[in-house]
Amino acid sequence: MSIQQISAASIVTAVDDHISCDLAGEAAILNFSSGLYYGLDEVGARVWKLISEPKSVIAIRDSIVEEYDVDPDRCERDLIALLTELADKGLVKVDEKPGR
User: Fold this and answer.
1) Phi, psi angle pair for 66, to nearest 5°
2) Which CATH number fits domain 11-90: 3.90.1690, 1.10.10, 3.60.21, 1.20.1510?
3) What predicted TM-score, i.e. pTM, was given to this entire model?
């Protein structure tokens, strides 16, 4: 069950309480709060890099669609699923009100 509701209009950013590194195009993330680490595949690692600064889900989707051969609707669904999982694990912050 998801803690955060994420939509295409959501603004997401990586939390400060982590360290991450590139592993041959993939990413490993250590969450300092929980002491657990998480791994992301190539596309997940690209999303992680994109959210180093606050970005809307739409902007992230558009970047991924431009860089990879993926249908925009499928990309958005998969992206929201990934971001929801990362939010549930305490790795991203979600803001529904841009400009706040």
Assistant:
1) -70, -35
2) 1.10.10
3) 0.88
